[in-house]
Amino acid sequence: MERSAAPSCLYLIHSLSNSLSERDRRIADYILNDPAKAVHLSIEELAEAAQVSVSTLVRFVKKLGFRGYQQFRIALASEALAPEARIYETIVDSGEDPVRLAFSSASKALEITSSMIDSQDLYKLASRIIEANCVYLFGLGGSLIVAKDALHKLVRTGIRCIGAEDYHMQLMIASQMNQQDTAIIVSHTGANKDAIGLAETIKTTGAFLCVITTYPRSALSRMADMRFISASSGSQAISEAFSARIAQLALIDSLYIAIMKQLGEEGIKNVEKMRATIAKRRI
Q1: Which one of 19, 66, 114, 146 is CB 3.0 to 4.6 Å from 71, fit for a cystine?
Q2: Is 49 exposed, middle or buried (0-12, 13-18, 19+ CB in 10 A)?
């Protein structure tokens, strides 16, 4: 698969922050607090500034997927020294135009998320959804918006799918799943106790579980049979959940297209039936 761009260095650090050791967290916090300053430091200087050993810093860089400090430093410089790097800074009382701020944040989240999606995995999920006895869509809080959008799109395809807003109802529904079913849980943090509770219930039924989240090493993500990672803004001016939600909605759109491609004429007929029914209610 070809990727449009390498995953953002700052995003990688941000996404792993909840699963880092104390020493790795010191490195991450130092870099995220002032990327432009960190990029100018030698490996010895950055290790000293973060109060860790050079070997700890080298291991941290390799955890992010870089071959060495120099490759990491080049990747960091490409973001930290560019205007768009502000997306990962704390912006307080910024004089920036709110439209530009919101749209640049969303654009960056979409760009990074697009680079991390494996199209082959997306088609595999599409196939599993088509073949499933029933597809269950779950989300809580803001993530429920994405789950409901997925339900709204899948209904058009003629695929049997179920969703619910009340958490107790979600648990009840999840308990009735079986090995022929597929579940999708959307959770920004992947650390919500209720979302994890849903996943635990689903796993006991033997159903296939796909998770859409921002944090690849979260407890929920580790429970998934398949996972898709959405990027977000680390800015306090734009809630990271907001930009992650936009990326997740685009991911659902991509999944819908992949499903429709595989359904072919059958999918088109089902969409036309839906359109014809809705058209009757128009004045």
Answers
A1: 66
A2: middle
Contact 97, 229 (CB under 8 A): no
- Answer for the pair 60, 98: CB distance below 8 angstroms, yes or no: no
According to DSSP, residue 8 is labeled P
**pLDDT-based confidence at residue 98 (cuts at 50, 70, 90):** confident
Tens digits of per-residue pLDDT, 3-34?
Answer: 334 557 887 887 777 788 999 999 998 998 88
CB neighbours of 152 closer than 8 A, spacing ≥ 6? none
Residue 212 has which token pair?
Answer: 């859409």
CB atoms within 10 A of CB 25: 17
Give the separation between CA 43 and CA 90, rounded to whole angstroms: 25
* pLDDT range class, residue 2, cuts 50, 70, 90: very low
Quote the tokens at residue 50. 């973060």
Q: Which residues, at least 6 apart from 127, have a Cβ–Cβ distance to it below 8 Å?
A: 262
Residue with tokens 């120099």: 70
Contacts with 20 (C-beta within 8 Å, 6 or more apart), sequence order: 28
